[in-house]
Design goal:
single chain, 129 residues, alpha/beta, 2,3-Dihydroxybiphenyl 1,2-Dioxygenase, domain 1, four-stranded mixed sheet, 3 helices, lyase, Glyas_Bleomycin-R_OHBP_Dase, Lactoylglutathione lyase, Glyas_Fos-R_dOase_dom
Amino acid sequence: MFDHMGFAVSDLQRSHDFYLHALAPLGYGLVMSIGKEQTGGYEGHAFGPAGQPAFWIGTGEATSRGLHVALRAQSAEQVEAFHAAALAAGGRDNGAPGPREHYAPGYFGAFVFDPDGNNVEAVYRGPAA
């Protein structure tokens, strides 16, 4: 299992604002920020559960667009809240909340495109029907 992940974004403040709101329903908040004075050039923000900087966005040259990230939710309601919050924060719909049994029994997910076109998903793996 990974400890943390990160990727470059085209507009750090815009992406910060998007993720701050979109990830809140999943229990992710801003955990830390680092600046050029600490790194010599990189600036970034880390989101995650309290004290766990698991999901980083930052400056730099993007290596790709269309990255797919799936974040675990604790309930179908959290998936729905993530989707609504992400859309309200400027995300674009890429799949409304709902069951996706073709992925796995009990799979409930929702997909949005972030401001850079990355596909961000919230998924709840509930009991198989």
